[in-house]
Amino acid sequence: MYVGGNHATRSFTNCLGSINMVAWAEHYKNANWPMVIYLGYCHALAFLSLFYFSTAKWQTLVFTLVISQFSGLGITGGVHRLWAHKSYKAHGIVRFFLMLCNAMANQGTIYHWSRDHRVHHKFSETDADPHNAMRGMFFAHMGWLLVKKDAKVIEAGRKINCDDLLEDWVVVLQKKLNPWGNLFMSFMFPMLVSTYFWQEHWAHGILIAGFFRYVFILHCTWLVNSAAHFYGQTPYDPKINPTENAIVAFFAMGEGWHNWHHVFPYDYAASEFGVASQYNPTKLFIDGCAKLGLVTDRKRALNAWEAKKAKMPNAPVSELKAKSA
Ligand SMILES: [Zn+2]
Ligand SMILES: [Zn+2]
């Protein structure tokens, strides 16, 4: 596999920009306190859940693992690849299912997530990027949620066109039920299922399948904005910072192939190769739905990459297409 571009990691000092005391004082002044308190509580409850694991029923642990995957899919296959990038088309049944999964991940509405993400791609690593990685690793990971948005981010968000999203009844339904629909799916639903079906204690249900899973998936998602903008290779465009990062791909269900994704954001696979060589359960899900006739118009960027590669100096030998699914 071609891993040229030899973009090393961002400088260590840059990564630690977030522990600069001046920057911290600035963050304190601009803190988004409701979010700081909300995320603080969620993390505290996720930590508390660690003391409940040993007394949880095995069904609760299996259920937590299963709905972790579904929550992740609601972000990767749902709001990211389907709604934000329109990289494939899905039947209403798939869209409704992905909306429920997305609600379980509870990262704001599909509409707002997509809008911020479109801004991220359009103004990547500038002041208008909601999680501008130039402001340090911590800011890109979760710090951006803890402070008020930069005026340039707000302005860019207003200008970006998201009208297409409001034409989808699934997106509108979730937006109308916000925030109660998402809060119910993320915390009450796991608790109700585990207490009703295998008589788990409610505290185990809400803490492990609710808060622990929620916070874990948050960090998996955030790794794409932080680690995959700092560590890894840049074979598709050495001039940008987003990287190919297998560890992030593992935690984020195939979203770590981020150099490819920033160069070809419309590619539904969000990676060059097939699932056999690049971990990508999200692609597998989309392909499975396509086999059932529930997904169509899967866009790929393999031809665009071949054309781009032909113009690149030190271009890799063309062995790529054959390997791709
Ligand atoms: Zn990115
Ligand atoms: Zn994207």
TrEMBL record:
Start and end residues of each Fatty acid desaturase domain: 57-266
Entry similarity comment: Belongs to the fatty acid desaturase type 1 family.
Source species of the chain: Thraustotheca clavata
Domain notes: The histidine box domains are involved in binding the catalytic metal ions.
Gene Ontology cellular-component annotations: endoplasmic reticulum membrane
Cofactor(s) essential for the protein: Fe(2+)
UniProt protein name: Acyl-CoA desaturase
One GO MF term attached to the UniProt entry: stearoyl-CoA 9-desaturase activity
Keywords, ordered alphabetically: Fatty acid biosynthesis, Fatty acid metabolism, Iron, Lipid biosynthesis, Lipid metabolism, Membrane, Oxidoreductase, Transmembrane, Transmembrane helix
Topology of the protein relative to the lipid bilayer: Multi-pass membrane protein
Subcellular compartments: Membrane
Single GO biological process annotation from the record: unsaturated fatty acid biosynthetic process
Pfam families: FA_desaturase (PF00487)
Residue ranges of the TM segments: 35-53, 60-80, 92-113, 180-198, 204-224
